[in-house]
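protien #1 (seq + structre)
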Amino acid sequence: MSLRVGRIEYANCVPLFKAFDALCDKDHRFVDGVPAILNAMLSLGEIDLSPSSSIAYGKDPNRYWLLPGLSISATGPVRSVLLFTRQPLEELDGATIGLTNESDTSVALLKIILGKFLAFKNSFQRTDALPQQADSAFGALLLIGNQAMRMSMTVSDYHVYDLGELWHRFTGLPFVYALWVVNRQSVAGQEDSVIDLARTLQQAKVACRDRLPLYVKGSGLEWYGFDNLISYWQTISYDLGELEMEGLRTFYRYSYELGIIEQLPEIVFFPGAISGGSF
């Protein structure tokens, strides 16, 4: 029986999955989707594990385990989680903010930046609109992933704020956008397969660092430009070390204080993990 593995359809995951595909000799079933869709499928047990929004684990930790040593993180600017606005950030107090439908972690991060760090009072509304379409309804618009990257290349008359940069400015910590999350119930009886997959992911996150130029051609991301794409991939970390863990716990603490999550989650790794973040 093969594992059902979620695969995020964003540029930040391309190197890891390319390296994983080259190293893995197992016949896993991959399910592509944006974070919000994969989060829902993981919760329902329709997939077994996935790189999933870090807030998804925080909202329901008893349903999941985490794979140690693995994340999608960045220290400082991430370039794919962006707030577009015609006003300077300091003038957004009281504004209605349009939110992407594709992510929950980035939405929580924005609420922390505005509500916790800047003490703003904002209202929020989900939307599929792009900045030019949203001008009449929203003071600012949050976009993520490939859509945010494309839009950042085409708009010149907007203020564009990188949420990773703002988080780092206020905390000095990396931000953990996604974790490798395992549905406890759906992997029952497949524990050895999970451990094997996690071991291959650990190998892939190391192997991909030296192969980034090889991944550009055929990635479907050539529109971003070769140098831009390599630079972008170099900002992404697949590690979950001490600093990332500190950033994750800080994110959960602020999310709890703002009522985004109901309790501070205990971070529990998949049984069989060896201390130090490896299998």
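ok now protien #2
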Amino acid sequence: MRWMRMLGGCLTVMALAACGSNDAVGPQGRLKLREGQSLDQAQECGVDLPQCPQGLSCLVLPLDGVPQARCVNGATVCEEFVTCTGGTECIMMLSYPGQVACSGRCTSDCDSSVSSSP
């Protein structure tokens, strides 16, 4: 039983070390609204705000360097609402509120505020 706890602790440390490796960090794509889309009609959301209407999810969209929490359709946010630059892929991270980000190595039009982080 004791060895299982030690093994679990070692695996956790190894996973954290791998995730924190600077080799995996590089320029990230910039999240952009798709043509014709706007946040103007999307309800603000968050911990101290009203819940989103049924069928919509509270998601944080970092646009132009400013994270904005809005009620959007989580099932189609990447396909219909936002896109990523530089050959990166739009992903949704599970949390509350959920977060939309770009994944993969950016090759052009990268987010300098993210890629210049230490």
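The chain has three helices and eight strands.
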